[in-house]
Amino acid sequence: MAEIIAGAAMSHVPAVGAAMDNAKTAEPYWAPYFAKVEGLRQWMATADPDVCIVIYNDHASAFSLELIPTFALGVAAEFPPADEGFGPRRVPTVPGHPQLAWHLAESLILDEFDMTIVNEMPVDHGCTVPLSLAFGQPEDWPCRVIPICVNVIQYPAPTGHRCFQLGRAIKRAVESFPGNERVVVFGTGGMSHQLQGERAGLTNPPFDLAFMDTLVRDPEAQAQVPHTTYLREAGSEGIELVMWLAMRGALSDQVNEAYRAHHVPTSNTSNGILVLECT
User: Fold this and answer.
1) 210-237 burial: b if 16+ Cβ within 10 Å, else e
2) Does residue 23 belong to any structural domain of this protein?
3) Do the bridges between strand 94-95 and strand 71-74 make them parallel or antiparallel, or are there none, so unpaired?
4) Among 32, 36, 138, 254, which one is most buried in terms of CB atoms within 10 A?
């Protein structure tokens, strides 16, 4: 059967992608952050997964206020980088895994998750920046990718508990797939940041570090934290952290923390990286 070997969580800050795309990673502002990315890339190179399931949120690239799925699953053979207003990122087209993706769709829906099945979908920085963080700037991505979009843009967003249970359902689905794929699940977004309003520019590193601690040791407790806590402590965009809970739910109860990094700020975001190996 297929197997989830680990989860990786990281922020998907668009400015990070722009720094890589425009050869600015060695500049004084960016160099300290990208030095911390190396641990993630070394781990990914050693793990060499066959598939990455990337849980992220779309930023009005594939969807709009006219169509807002709570959970959307991409089942295509490939996903082009989206044009977010400045042209598509100069990164490879993202290769899909239709067989496993359709298996996930069937398993998740029969497991009572109402997934929106997407046959054609551009992927924006929410998906491509995590891939760049994990794999650098290759000519082709070294593994196949299944994108899962979570709505954290338009109220009401799914709860942390619902996202954690989605991860549990993803785990059951992968383990019932009759293949030998080694899978890493990405949880993306966050950490604390707010892009507008009176608290624009907010970061809360103590909250972020405590979140990572609890996510590792007691994820079910973290899954009970309400939206209002994320909004108050981590800013309006801090709600993206529920996607880290989806990643954690897809792992074994006990995990080995293989790598952790934290950096403030990247652009206006408290930026975290976390790699958890299944035991």
Assistant:
1) ebbebbbeebeebbebebeebeebbbbb
2) yes
3) unpaired
4) 36
Q: What is the dihedral of CA 269, 23, 46, 164, to 10 degrees?
A: 20
Residues belonging to the active site: 125, 193
pLDDT given at position 264:
97
pTM flag (> 0.85)? yes
Please state the φ and ψ torsions of residue 56, each to the nearest 5 degrees. Answer: -150, 175
CA 173 vs. chain centroid, Å, equals 18
Tokens matching residue 164: 């954690």
State how far the Cα of 157 lies from the Cα of 66, in Å rounded to an integer.
16
- Is 268 part of a structural domain of the chain? no
Residues with Cβ within 8 Å of 86's Cβ and at least 6 positions away in sequence, in order, are: none
Interatomic CA distance for residues 40 and 24, integer angstroms = 19
Domain that holds residue 119: 3-203
Over the stretch 192-217, which tens digit does the pLDDT of each residue have?
A: 999 999 999 999 999 999 999 999 99
Q: List the one residue out of 249, 253, 250, 227 whose CA is nearest residue 239.
A: 227
DSSP labels for 153-219? SSSSPPPHHHHHHHHHHHHHHHHTSSS--EEEEEEE--SS---SSTTTT---HHHHHHHHHHHHH-H
